[in-house]
Amino acid sequence: MRDTFVLSNRIGKNYVVLSTFISTSIVFLILILLMINSWQVISLSDANLFSSEWAPYKNSFGILPMLYGTVIVTFISLFLAIPLGIATSIFTAEILPEKYRYIVKSVLELLAGIPSIIYGLIGIAFFSIWIQDFFQLQTGRTILTAGILLSIMILPTIITLSDDALRSVPKKYREASKGLGLYQYETIRFNLLPIAKSNIIGAVLLALGRALGETMAVMLVIGSIDEIASPFYNWLTPGQTVTSKLGREIAETSFGSVHFSALIFMGFILLSIVLVFTIIAQHYSKRTERLYE
Amino acid sequence: MSRKTKNTLFKSITCIAVITCFTILLFLFGVIFWNGIPAINLEFISSSSSNFGADGGILYQIIGSVLIVIVSALLSFPIAIGTAIFKSEYLKTPKWQKFSNILIFGLNGIPSVVFGIFGLILFVNILGFGISWFVGSIILGIMMLPTIILTSFQSINSIPTIYRESSLALGLNKWETITKVLLPQGFSGAITGLLIGLARAIGETAPIMFIATAFSGVNLPQGIREPVSTLPTHILALAQQATNPEALQNAWGTSLILIILVMLFSLSALFIRNRQQSLSQL
Amino acid sequence: MKHILTLIFLSFFLNCAQRETINVGGSTTVLPVISNAAESYKETNPNIRIIVNAGGSGVGINQVGEKKLDIGMISRGITEQEKAKYPAINFNPISIGKDAVVPVVSSEIYDAGITTLSLEQIGKIYSGEIRNWKTLGGPDREILCVDKEASRGTRHVFMAAVFGDKEAPAPGADLVLGSNNEEQTALVQSNSAIGMLSNAWLNDDVKGLTIQMPNGDTIEPTLANIINGTFPITRDLVIVTNGAPSGKVQTFVDYVLGEEGQKIVENAGYVRVK
Q1: In this structure, are residues A139 and B1 in contact, taking their beta carbons and an 8 Å threshold?
Q2: Residue in B184, B198, B220, B219 with CA at minimum distance from that of residue B266
Q3: Could you tell me the pTM of the whole model?
Q4: Which residue of chain A comes nearest to B112, CA vs CA?
């Protein structure tokens, strides 16, 4: 009897070790596979990887237009979502009475539940037409449209995580400020925000990672032109992001071709950037340490 | 500006921000419901699509979506629980905790389209599965892992040490302690994670669109190596014909059904989860 | 719960043997024909399942090459490169219908008087030399030049006719889109666009241009002109198999080439081959 218990102890341990091995090694597996499949185009001397011309028929695979699009779209989305998100989180965390907070937060989290393809549908059916009419454009499929759509998609991340960050500041700071006769504005601005800053930065970095990797909504509204806008700040023109390029083109290429390899290379670069930001975000968020308490 | 005006101004700005967010939220849900409800009737959810999805219903898209995510949950859940137990009960040095956290959060941060490429390279091409719903389930299962691991870990890890000590003192070995004492207590956390994972997975398009789905002619898959149709990829096909009124109407109808499925999963999760946490944390 | 799932799984595997599946994929131009033909074919042949996927001609050829598809749908020729890439595959193209690629403009432009253009003028728009409709006698409005993804059959045929090179770059393009549906949507949403569409996608909102030939003749994009071959940008709608089709694939191909199949070709807005 005792033996079977010992045995189950050993099997159990093997099971959890194996599970952990699987879940932690996938990141490496993905990185390695993308690296191997990018090698073909990296080793090609005349692929012009860091040029701005993407022309598979003459073996030119410049990824700059896609990188440009990704950077700009992400920038626009953060530019809009950070102030709006943080201001909202200040309201939900500090100004809103406690009893409504749970409801308001849950409702805002519903926003996060809308699948990105539905954002894409709304983008193509409404946003792109509004942008087209408002700016009197040839087409509403622009970099700006994608940026605005993306800002809405990352709002919930920023709001809920910043809200958590503010709430995790101990009560005594608020009481102390109150005792000093500070207004709520001053309490938040000079006491709470500096304390929560690190976690808020973590939240923004996490949102940044999501914005960089978002595919479907961007792909439907951005117009898919592999060009760097001229001048570069003219965001009312169509563009292309790494993700939209991958989404549109990967299925058209055949496995093992240089074209395929060039797309994988872009995927690899995107993945590396996102992983770096995720790790930095981890560093800023004190969430993990709280778990040990 | 006096301190008082500043304070009022500040409060009004946050107020405006909240109102803006709620307006956006109302607009999005309003659009989906307003356009979706007229498209939905019994026939829509019980018949197969035809004519590029502009006619007919979405029965097989619903079945395909549900099939893919249920199987992905079945694949993901045991591995996630195992990892959570290992992290909570066996892994004690903070250094390794941190390292495993980086890997799990890293996995969580990987863009969905990269998962699609990964599946395309490894399963569809190298392992030769071809385009199949089961490959989609594997990929979505991998994407769910971090969420389930983290929620399960939190709930198992938060069980007070005294439980483990008493159980060991009663003569139970470590594994018995885990299965008889810790798991029953931590189960609700794991289920919450599973539901959140399902809510996310069912709406995913990019990871499955080139590895698991087909455009038309699919009904019930007859093996694990066949493609299915899913709700998100159906919306994708319909969104591209956004000026065809029938197609657009069906796109809204499909979106509404998808949102309802997502809400079913996430509201159940909200219901079960600890009120202090945020879904977005995971 | 577990038992039910096991049962479902078992039934999948047991079912495998009973019904046969044909996998089809590729060009969105051929898609309506095959998709509709598959639907009606299945009514009389319930034991055959036909799974149809989109993706464009490039996908159709590549996946037949990789033996992932039984039938590839293509709306252009197979390039030498593609043949070279799959030396083991004996690509067997079968023509199932005829289509024209028509240069199209937004209805506002058409109504403003731009109804006829020469291939040279179209070429100048796509190369970026002409950027305003005023140059062509239309309203003073910038041209929204809509291009298609590089491997799309429609683009190959169009570029071959306009520039003499099916892979010609289009530096004047403002948008690059994929399927005929997506392109049509963009043309409808704009009031100053030019694009390329299969004849079957023309309607009141997207109007096909009459083409002026070098000798001064003008040729309208009508079915009659496509049938008699005078319209300059025509192509065959092709399905491609690896070697001559056999068994279940052959019966389906025969159906598409038969009277019922050809009626579907006609109803989809194309020209029948038989």
Answers
A1: no
A2: B198
A3: 0.89
A4: A213
